[in-house]
Structures are given as C-alpha cells and as structure tokens.
Write a structure and sequence with these properties.
By secondary structure, the protein is an alpha/beta fold. It has 4 helices and 6 strands, in the order αααβαβββββ.
Length: about 180
C-alpha cells in the first residue's frame, strides 16, 4: 500500500477500510447499506447518536455544548459562523495565519465588521502570531483562528487566551489529532 502523509486525506488502517467496505454493502443486522436506509430510521439515528457520543468522549465536549453534524466542510462554515454569531452592530476578530484564515476573513466581511487582530502575512505566513502581536477587541462577538494551516505548514500549539470572548476555531484538519479544551 502507498502511504499518503499529505495535509489532507491520509492513510487509514486496513481493518478500518475493510469494515467500511463491508458496511457500505450491508450494515450488520440491517440487510442494506447505510446509503440505502432512511435518514429518519432508528438504525441511522443510532449511527448518528453513536458518532456524537464518540466525538464527545474523544474531544471531551461538555454536555452543555451541542454537536452539529453539517455538510459543507470548513469553507461553508466561513459563511455560517458570522451569519449565526455576528450580531448587528458587533465586530468579530480574525487572526490571519494563512490561506484558509484569509478565506474565512473574506466571507465574514460579507456579513459584518471584521477586525484582523493579528497577521503573519508579511512573513509569508511562516509562523503563528505571538500573543503580544494580537490586538484583540474586548467586546468582540468572537475570535476566529485556523488551528492548522495546511498550505503554510503552521499550527497553533495552544489557542490564544481570550478571556470571556468566545473562540471559533477552524479545526477541520486537526480536530482529533490531540487533546484540546472544547469548553473554550
């Protein structure tokens, strides 16, 4: 087998692929594929509930947080985040650390006021801004970071300390790669 160590899709263990292959043809005890059952069926509801419980356990997601399984990936979230969290008259802080952060900033600006509170663009995004380089807005609706800049090869080791301001993190490429405090 070829091993792909790219920033996006990567190698999976063969037993995982074999189970997915079996279940794609026929879920155990169901007689048909997950692609063929109703998304309203008890079987599919069980799959969703198990996935959510596994995510909660793996990431330590508190019970007072909802887990939403949405289509579209990070790029869709670049629009959905400000549409849902950026209220009228509010501003959001964005830390510009690369290609994906820049795309998120452009989408958020279509919705409301965006403050770029730190950037390493002048350094060709070859690093994450140091805490003293961030000019955070005390009453921001939220602060947005991209945890892992796959194109530039930089990653936040720890999210910035924001005090009471909510953190929104595009963690689409590294969300389950290490422990993190989801309550932040």
């Amino acid at each position: 087998r070829i091993f792909n160590f790219s920033a996006g899709p990567a190698v999976l263990p063969l037993p995982v692929l074999e189970q997915a292959q079996r279940d794609m043809l026929s879920l155990p005890g169901v007689g048909m594929s997950v692609m063929e059952i109703s998304h309203r069926s008890k079987t599919f509801e069980g799959i969703l509930n198990t996935a959510i419980a596994d995510m909660r356990a793996l990431a330590g997601i508190p019970d007072n947080y909802r887990v939403l399984l949405l289509q579209g990936g990070a790029s869709l979230q670049f629009s959905m985040v400000p549409m849902n969290l950026l209220g009228s008259g509010q501003a959001a802080d964005y830390v510009d650390t690369g290609t994906w952060a820049d795309k998120a900033i452009k989408e958020a600006k279509k919705v409301g006021t965006v403050n770029v509170t730190g950037s390493t663009k002048a350094d060709n995004y070859n690093r994450i801004p140091a805490p003293h380089e961030l000019s955070l807005t005390p009453d921001a609706a939220y602060v947005h970071i991209t945890t892992n800049n796959t194109i530039e090869g930089t990653q936040w080791k720890q999210p910035p300390d924001l005090g009471p301001v909510p953190l929104v993190a595009d963690a689409s490429s590294d969300i389950f790669s290490r422990p993190f405090d989801a309550s932040r």
